[in-house]
Structures are given as structure tokens and as C-alpha cells.
């Protein structure tokens, strides 16, 4: 049972280009979370998605950032017109649907991350 | 807003010494607390998860304690080895939420 798969592992973009980060959740997991880790900082929540739905994007910058989790295929975090401040490690996590009614009970399993460098 | 602090930010010890890593959080209404290990350029490995009703968890040479009322957790690593060199992250799950709050980590170097 493969874990959470993220690709690419490393991504280099020039200012103004677009970055697309992919995340395939663990088999059977229908919840996806994206976190960003800036240098010397802890991971910060960005967005929570279920299949075809954005549940909570309160941690995501209002401009240039978007996320999706289509019915088929991986979740995508898209950053348009990247700037140097977007350089960070972006982690994806997934969790199963426990049916418990408490989202806190859904243990999140993390991928290896994508390290974005903006030149 | 939950704030998670880890002290010290970096730690260097000789092989064989015991490690003590500290984590504090401002809001005691947590569901659980996790300790993760992060190797350079790599992902997160979950080491221990302590439910809010528990006081400690153990796995091999690792022991994590939780004092929810005072907002503190401590990770002990016994008889450290060079392979324990990594960054250790503490994360709390809020009472009924999914947004994990992470500390900035403690970077550990174990010298052979």
C-alpha cells in the first residue's frame, strides 16, 4: 500500500512562471490537506479538500494560489506567476473517511513534499 | 489561535547521550499531539501520537509525555545514535478540527 505520493520532489521556476504540484493520496483516502513550510518555520495549513470539493481554503493566499481534487486523478496545487517568496516546501497529507463525525479523528499521513525554488 | 513552540531550536550531543526535546502549546483544548521526524530534503515520519487523554507513549528508545493542562510535551530519546540526527517536529490537532499546528522544530545532531 503506497503512501502519499507527491511529485515532483523538486521544482525550479523563474519568477512569473506557473508551478503545479501534484499529490496522490493513500489508497482509500478521500481527504487531502496541503501545508506549506517556509524556511525556518513550521508547517502552515493551506487548504483542505475532498473529492471535487474545497472544504476549507482559509490558509491559502487569495491571489495566485488554487487547489483542486478532481473525481479522477491527483490533487493539484497551482501557483500562478510565482514570486521568490513562494519558495518553500509544500506538503500534502491525506486521511481516510472515518465516519466518526469528528474531523480531528482523521489521522493525516504526509507525503515527502515538493520543494519549490523560484529563481 | 494555537501557537506551538519548540525549544531549543538546535541541539548537538555526543553519541550515547539522552535527548530531551520540548514542545509547548498555548491552547490546551487539543485532540492529540504528534511528534514527527523530518530528514533533510525528505518528508515527515510520524514517530508517536498521544491522545489528549493519555499521559505518555513509548516506542523503542522514544518516549513522549503530555501534560495538557500546562500545554507541554516532551520527547525523550534514549542512548542517542548518529542516525537520530534529524529535525523533530511537534504538531497538535485542535479539539474538533483538522488543521494541525506545527512547531518550527528542533534540529538534532548526534556526534559520533
Topology summary:
The complex is a heterodimer of chains A (119) and B (112).
Chain A: E1 5-7, E2 10-13, E3 19-24, E4 31-37, E5 43-50, E6 53-56, E7 65-68, E8 75-79, E9 88-95, E10 109-110, E11 114-118
Chain B: E1 4-7, E2 10-14, E3 19-25, E4 30-38, E5 44-51, E6 56-59, E7 62-67, E8 72-77, E9 86-94, E10 101-102, E11 106-111
Parallel strand pairs in B: 2-11
Antiparallel strand pairs in B: 1-3, 3-8, 4-5, 4-9, 6-7, 7-8, 9-10, 9-11
Q: What's the end-to-end separation of chain B, in Å? A: 41 Å
Radius of gyration of chain A: 14 Å
What is the number of helices of chain B? 0
Number of strands of chain A: 11
Largest sheet of chain A: 7 strands, mixed
Q: Characterize the quaternary organization of these chains.
A: heterodimer
On the 0 to 100 scale, the average pLDDT of chain A is 91
Compute the CA-based radius of gyration of chain B. Answer: 13 Å
Question: Major sheet of chain B: size, sense and barrel closure?
Answer: 6 strands, mixed
**Shape verdict of chain A:** globular
Give the DSSP E fraction of chain B (strand runs of 2 or more residues).
Answer: over 45%
Structural class, judged by helices and strands of chain B? mainly beta
Chain-averaged pLDDT of chain B = 93
**Structural class of the secondary elements of chain A?**
mainly beta
Give the uncertain stretches of chain B in residue-range form: none
Count every beta strand of chain B, where a strand is a DSSP E run of 2 or more residues: 11
Please summarize what this structure is.
Chain A is mostly beta strands. Chain A is built from no helices and eleven strands.
What does this structure look like?
- The complex is a heterodimer of chains A (119) and B (112).
- Chain A is built from no helices and 11 strands.
- In chain A, 0% of the residues lie in helices and 47% in strands.
- Chain A is globular.
- The termini of chain A are far apart.
- In chain A, β4 and β5 form a beta hairpin.
- Chain A has 119 residues and is mainly beta.
- Chain B is an all-beta fold.
- Chain B is built from no helices and 11 strands.
- Chain B has strands at residues 4-7, 10-14, 19-25, 30-38, 44-51, 56-59, 62-67, 72-77, 86-94, 101-102, 106-111.
- In chain B, the strands form 2 sheets. In chain B, strands 2, 4, 5, 9, 10 and 11 form a 6-stranded mixed sheet that branches.
- Chain B starts with a strand and ends with a strand.
- The chains are: A mainly beta (119), B mainly beta (112).
- Chains A and B meet through β4, β5 and β10 of A and β4, β5, β9 and β10 of B.
Amino acid at each position: 500500500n503506497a503512501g502519499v505520493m507527491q511529485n515532483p520532489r523538486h521544482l525550479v521556476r523563474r519568477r512569473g512562471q506557473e508551478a503545479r504540484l501534484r499529490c496522490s493520496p493513500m489508497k482509500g483516502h478521500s481527504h487531502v490537506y496541503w501545508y506549506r513550510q517556509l524556511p525556518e518555520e513550521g508547517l502552515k495549513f493551506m487548504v483542505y479538500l475532498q473529492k471535487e470539493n474545497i472544504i476549507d481554503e482559509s490558509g491559502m493566499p487569495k491571489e495566485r494560489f488554487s487547489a483542486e481534487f478532481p473525481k479522477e486523478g491527483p490533487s493539484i496545487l497551482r501557483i500562478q506567476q510565482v514570486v521568490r517568496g513562494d519558495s518553500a516546501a509544500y506538503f500534502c497529507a491525506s486521511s481516510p473517511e472515518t465516519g466518526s463525525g469528528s474531523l480531528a479523528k482523521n489521522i493525516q499521513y504526509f507525503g515527502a513534499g515538493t520543494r519549490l525554488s523560484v529563481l | 489561535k494555537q501557537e506551538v513552540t519548540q525549544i531549543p531550536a538546535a541541539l548537538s550531543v555526543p553519541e550515547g547521550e539522552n535527548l530531551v526535546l520540548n514542545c509547548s502549546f498555548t491552547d490546551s483544548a487539543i485532540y492529540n499531539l504528534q511528534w514527527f521526524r523530518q530528514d533533510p530534503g525528505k518528508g515527515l515520519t510520524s514517530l508517536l501520537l498521544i491522545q489528549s487523554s493519555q499521559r505518555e507513549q513509548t516506542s523503542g528508545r522514544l518516549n513522549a509525555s503530555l501534560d495538557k493542562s500546562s500545554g507541554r510535551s516532551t520527547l525523550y530519546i534514549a542512548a542517542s545514535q548518529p542516525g537520530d540526527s534529524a529535525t523533530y517536529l511537534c504538531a497538535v490537532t485542535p479539539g474538533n478540527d483538522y488543521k494541525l499546528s506545527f512547531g518550527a522544530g528542533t534540529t538534532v545532531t548526534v556526534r559520533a
